[in-house]
Amino acid sequence: MPSSRLAEGELTHQERVPVDMDLADAQWEAYVEALRAEGFTPVDVPPADELADSVFIEDALVMVGDTAVVTRPGAESRRPEIEAAEQTARELGLRIERIVEPGTLDGGDVLPIGDVLYVGRGGRTNAEGIRQLRAIARRHGRDVVAVPVTKALHLKSAVTALPDGTVVGHPSLIDDVSMWRNFLPMPEVEGGHVVVLSDDAVLMAASAPQSAELIRSLGYRVVTVDISEFEKLEGCVTCLSVLVR
Ligand code: CIR
């Protein structure tokens, strides 16, 4: 659940604006309920109230097969978040691997498409973090493809993928659109953020209604959640959970 200090979280591209904490808590509950309604069993990572960004759990853990990679977040203020994340992964019986100093890697920079992990090299994830993830991924039969990210906080702030592998995103945030073979531009920035729920359903933020319509027109069921208070801290719909399948 969100820290009561959420409003003090890291900001890179946006101006700080007031956060309605009651609304943030309600939006969090609705997000968790939406996942439950889709058949997931939500497991809470113990709340870390002193860590403003701790609700953005995606950045602390990356799933590679049945292994949880505990990251080393690029923002120093976020490094202590990994403790509770690792503890929860252990309690779930997952195998653990780690990104270690001097590597940095945020889970928001890791986009799995099939057996490939696309990894954003930007402000939070460095070359050493990518090298370490590549070595871990290889042991699990997966490839890593590194992608420069200079216009967005994380790779997944710029692009994500539909269940069929189509990459969606807003061109203004993408360094090189031509590197994505199967790219579909979205009319809104937040339209580039989808959580794959199943082969035919995705979760999206309510802030991207035109993109949701476009994706519905392709035959997908689109579940929407309002995450306005998290978007004020540069959080996307992907960043509030880690899906363990
Ligand atoms: C940060 O700057 O680290 C947080 N305020 C937001 C992180 C959002 N994470 C994500 O989209 N994966």
Automatic annotation (TrEMBL):
Coiled coil: none
Entry-linked Pfam families: ADI
Keywords: Hydrolase
Family annotation (Gene3D superfamilies): L-arginine/glycine Amidinotransferase, Chain A
Family the UniProt entry places it in: Belongs to the DDAH family.
Protein name as annotated: Arginine deiminase family protein
Lineage: Bacteria, Bacillati, Actinomycetota, Actinomycetes, Micrococcales
